[in-house]
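Today's session is about reading a structure prediction critically. Students often jump straight to the picture, but the first step is always the sequence itself: look for stretches that repeat, for charged clusters, for runs of hydrophobic residues. Only then move on to the predicted structure, which in these notes is written as discrete structure tokens rather than atom positions. Here is the chain we will use throughout the hour.
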Amino acid sequence: MPREHRVRLILAFAALYVIWGSTYLGIRIAIETIPPFFMAGFRFLVAGIMLYAWARLRGAPPPTRAEWRTGVIIGGLLLLGGNGGVVWAEQRVASGLAALMIGAEPLWVVMLDWLRPGGKRPSLTVALGLAIGFAGVVLLVSPSEFGGAGGVDPVGAFALTVATVSWAVGSIYSRHAPTQASPFMSTGTNMLAGSALLFVAGFVTGEPARLDLSAVSARSALAVFYLIVFGAVIGFTAYLWLLKNTTLAKASTYAYVNPVVAVVLGWLILDEPLTARTLLAAAIIIAGVVTISTFQYAKAGAQRLFARGGATALPSSVPSLPEEG
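Below is the predicted structure for this chain, in token form.
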């Protein structure tokens, strides 16, 4: 492998691991002085415009009516239900704990894909991964005092659970929905539609009365800038480049690393508690996700090895773009 290409791979993986892992911290800082739904709506509005414009400059056609309809559905599930639930919950839950709960999203994807009509029953190995992963979630949100902490705020934990399920449903739906061939245009469309829904949620919950632009701190404003430019645009571009230059299994390892990065950054920068309970729950959740993903990737690889003349579908547990991507 040429040295220049190896350096690009390292930089792209570093962007995926560090940037996407740090977005939970960025959200927590941004909502210190900005209402959550308005903050998220503005973030995805600007990022969506940038991706939409870039796709058009590269020759992508504008979305059709059917593609806009898909964008509204995916934007509603991923950005309003998924990301909106995260930004709201981080008013009550530490950024690192939020990242750990969201890190269980691949578990929900497998579970819901099994329960849907015509869904496929998971194998024994995948079922074991589900049991391990959800055991970690239960440990994390349990009200017991094991490990030095009293668990996650129940309202915040419920909001994060709803957000994770919404993201998982959106991930499953997006695999079969009509979307643009250009990933930049498709993502830009989803972001623009999702931002509109987030602004509506902000108006419904009375955020205009709580928004005081003169009271927005410099660090909250910088956090929003970071989430737009680095979290949405640079992180997404790095992910697409990796999909073309390495294997899907390697590109998707962000799902294991991001929660760890988020927990460490929350501890270092915001003094969020880092207890034995948190570390144990993180290890169990990640072990469950790794068990499922490793089996599914191996199975998909075997299918591609013996397939003749046809493309093999991605395994059902392949993580979609993360909620904070």
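Discussion point for the tutorial: Residues 3-306 form one domain.
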